[in-house]
Design brief:
With 231 residues, the protein is an alpha/beta fold. Among the domains are: 70 residues, membrane protein fhac (Ubiquitin-like (UB roll)); 87 residues, no CATH class. The strands form three sheets. A six-stranded mixed β-sheet has the order 7-8-9-10-11-12, covered by helices on one side. The chain is elongated, with a radius of gyration of 32 Å.
């Protein structure tokens, strides 16, 4: 009588399949390790664009991705946040370009107004961010107000007025005096005074002011843009 033996649950073909899968996984792991740690895919060059006043060294120190760092493990978003922490940097983008390059693109803050203190000239950008203390650019208007700074409503109103002015008009402004949010005057470089009032309708007021300044006078009131006057 023939004896029937139970068949094994593991056949030769299934063993071969598992062996092949294990070998494939091992190859993938080795390939990933090569990609991650190979010197051929590491930082050998850093390209910086958009920097005018911020030094390359300051940017590279902030990005903190030294030469030889494997590209595979670089956290671009974190590097960009560190770069944007520089006071003069408004925006920063960090990108990896294979096989060996990091690209750092920045947009610098530009001065819209400045105010004086015993420490020097404080530069304010269009958002009211005080980003530097030093020499103000020659064409930047001076802000005169009681409590200058980004938290001050009169400062923000003065910034809104200057931002609304077209370049040709802005270049003529020497001083912005903001006694309150609704009482703003512009002193032009030729000594003429523009009584602006509040920051509302600033674009309309700016469009009126340019032609109005060509008329003889010393004081130009555009606080009510429907009824501008010249004295």
């Amino acid at each position: 009588m023939r004896e029937h033996r139970p068949q094994s649950g593991v056949t030769g073909s299934s063993v071969r399949r598992w062996t092949l899968l294990a070998a494939l996984l091992l190859l993938v792991a080795v390939a990933l390790a090569v990609v991650r740690f190979s010197p051929l895919l590491s930082v050998r060059d850093v390209r910086v664009t958009g920097a005018e006043t911020v030094s390359r060294k300051e940017l590279l120190d902030a990005v903190a991705v030294p030469h030889g760092t494997p590209l595979f493990g670089i956290e671009s978003a974190a590097a960009a946040r560190r770069c944007a922490g520089i006071a003069r940097v408004a925006r920063c983008r960090v990108a990896v370009e294979y096989p060996s390059t990091i690209l750092v693109e920045i947009a610098e803050r530009s001065a819209v107004l400045y105010f004086e203190s015993p420490q020097g000239s404080h530069l304010l950008d269009s958002e009211g961010v005080e980003f530097a203390v030093g020499a103000a650019p020659q064409a930047t208007p001076k802000l005169v107000t009681a409590h200058p700074g980004s938290a001050d409503a009169a400062t923000r109103a003065a910034l809104a007025v200057v931002v609304a002015a077209p370049d040709k008009l802005r270049a003529q402004i020497r001083t912005v005096t903001a006694r309150s949010v609704s009482d703003i005057d512009l002193t032009m470089r030729d000594g003429k005074i523009v009584e602006w009032g509040g920051a509302s309708e600033s674009e309309r007021k700016a469009a009126i002011t340019g032609p109005l300044l060509t008329r003889p006078g010393t004081r130009y009131d555009v606080s009510s843009p429907d009824l501008p006057t010249v004295k």
